Amino acid sequence: MRSFDLVEPATLEEAVALLDSQDKSVRAIAGGTALMLMMKTRLFQPTRLISLRRLNGDVRGIRMNEGGGLRIGAMTSLADLEYSPMLASNYPVMNRSLRTLSNIRIRNVATLGGHLAHGDPHMDLPPILLTLGARVSAISSRGQRWIGISELIVGYYQTSLAKDELITAVDVPAQPPGVCSWYEKFTARSADDWPTVGAAAWYCVNSNVITEARVAVSAATERPMRMVAAEAVLVNAPPTPQVFSEAADAAADEVQPIADLHGSASYKREMVRVHVRRALEKAEQWRSRT
User: Fold this and answer.
1) Partners of 187 in the beta sheet?
2) All domains of the chain, ordered by start, with CATH?
3) Residue 1 pLDDT level (bands cut at 50, 70, 90)
4) Overall pTM > 0.85
5) Rounded Cα–Cα distance for residues 26 and 17 (Å)
């Protein structure tokens, strides 16, 4: 690992001013759980790292939004999210997923902003946030802008963030009545390992009819993606095992899986079929219990 400068700004404004829109070797670092691994293997060799660990205020913590949803500061650790009663009450699907998101040592250090900015398709929270309709706040010297999760991660380890932008917060909107959601994580090894397939299901039920649906798949694909064909099968249909199976078949037909160490493309396609169906079924079971 070659030498580099490490700076620790005390304010968000100072951090933004230190970024360089033209130099990709200048990078902000939050928890550093992913970035340090890239540096050790020399996939990334910085000339300057801008540590965000001294930043406080709105970039940390969880608070209610005016519209009833939650605003989560980008520097909030994944462990803080895991143990938040506010998150568990409003978005139990996120709370459940955090229990097997890597291990507690990583969750104590990793931040929500870093989790999203890394653009890794194997992350657990992006497909969930995609189905929940979340968006992120990004700031640069040009000002602030809001980016939907569907527009944030644009490719394999690629995001739409400019080199001089920082994620400051994640807004998760209030969920309508009758919503049920579930995240199904399939790993080839331990439960806290990277997923081979991640499937997030979200739908609204009114008078035993699904009125709106969102299904997202990750890990098997180069980025978290909505399964539009599966959603079309679900809308205006009853929440039954047969409908869920047809939606899972549609997702398997639609998905364009990528082969890697976790499995071949054909294997992942079948795992998408299995785990989309399970996510839909478990979301309905959860709704029936609550």
Assistant:
1) none
2) 5-51 (3.30.43.10), 57-172 (3.30.465.10), 179-289 (3.30.390.50)
3) low
4) yes
5) 12
